[in-house]
Amino acid sequence: MWFYRNYQGQTGGHIKFSQYLGHVTSSANWQPRFVLSEDSQQDLFWSEHESHCVERWRVEKGDVVFVAGMDWVYFDFCDVPSAVPVINLIQGLRHADPEQILFQYLSRDAIRICVSEEVKAAVEVTERINGPIFALNNGIKAVSSIELVEKQQLCTPIQNQRWLLVGIKNPVLASQVSSYLVSLGIQVELLIEPVSQPLFLNKLGRAGVVVCFPLSEEGFYLPALEAMARYCLVMCPDCVGNRSFCHESSALIPEHNIEGYISSINKLVVMPEDEISAIRSRAFDMSKRYTLENERERFLAILDDAYRLWLRV
User: Fold this and answer.
1) Which end of the chain, N or C, is less packed with Cβ atoms under 10 Å?
2) 237-to-21, 76, 124, 246, 258 alpha-carbon distances in Å
3) Residue 80: which CATH number?
4) Are 283 and 302 in a shared domain?
5) Which pTM was predicted?
6) Is the dihedral of CA 220, 22, 97, 215 positive or negative?
7) Whether 35 and 111 share a structural domain
8) DSSP helix/strand/coil, 206
9) Per residue of the chain (313 residues), what is the pLDDT tens digit?
10) Dist. CA 236–CA 228, nearest whole Å
């Protein structure tokens, strides 16, 4: 199975792409072949996939091609036989926006995998889809039992716990919320610059409350789910793709403005501890359904069936 990336720094999209590459590596029936663009940044992010790297695609009958985002540009540069199935991973709602360049690729023949039911619904509404389409909710890596034991013993007042603000996508609003929390005497870590995935997960592991600042429309929004899996109390506004796991029973849902966040914060700091614990527990239990193993199993089933599905494209 052939993969391609133009890598200009770590993003959530690259992380999920890398996990799909790992799914194929674990398969008994398929071998990945991975090409990085010549101008890709050189760092350790792709190190676990180095043994599968090649200089260019040489797609032959019996292979399958994997494309995501703007990978279609490289696909068109290569000589891919029409009989070769194409699996297209769709991670964002922008694919369904006629003003976005990705919209043009919806009409290309492909077996499409969407990272949430919300993304699937959005692209289906365009009526441009050619080929089968599936929704595979994003999965996350398992959390260590030692870390969870420590987190489940959170018993100090919510104001005395560590608050992590994930503000990379909206640093201005995140900074405003941080200033308000500091005025309340709350210990805050403000994250407005990208960090490595291991470091980010480590920060989640040390936090008691995680306040998220997604874009108004996201395909899934993994940080909120990763925080829930680490027994954090999550505050995250609606961003469409997070609706299956971010709702009133599992998180605080502020409006996308400073007044909305302040209102949710004021509600949280006076919330009874048993109610806080109940929200945390419900969110944690729900997060167990979104495993990387489930994602891998469902994806590999589609991959093994790719040629039969392709005949229907």
Assistant:
1) C
2) 31, 38, 25, 8, 12
3) 3.40.50
4) no
5) 0.92
6) positive
7) yes
8) helix
9) 999 999 988 888 999 999 999 999 999 999 999 999 999 988 878 888 999 999 999 999 999 999 999 999 999 999 899 999 999 999 999 999 999 999 999 999 999 999 999 999 999 999 999 999 999 999 998 887 666 766 655 678 899 999 999 999 999 999 999 999 999 999 999 999 999 899 999 999 999 999 999 999 999 999 999 999 999 999 999 999 999 999 999 999 999 999 999 999 999 999 999 999 999 999 999 999 999 999 999 999 999 999 999 987 6
10) 11
Question: In which domain, by residue range, is 66 found?
Answer: 2-139+292-310
* Residue 249, both tokens: 């029973």
Q: Indicate whether 118 and 175 sit together in one domain.
A: no
Question: Given the structure tokens 């502020």, which residue do they identify?
Answer: 254
Tell me, yes or no, whether 111 and 44 share the same domain: yes
Half-sphere exposure of 217 (CA within 13 A, CB side): 10
Which is nearest to 32 in space by CA: 75, 2, 8?
2
CA torsion 10-29-105-40 (nearest 10°) is 30
The answer to whether residues 100 and 197 belong to one domain is no
- Report the number of distinct structural domains present in the chain: 2
- CATH (domain of 249): 3.40.50.2000
Owner of token pair 């789910």: 225
Q: Taking a C-beta distance cutoff of 8 angstroms, is the pair 120, 133 a contact?
A: yes
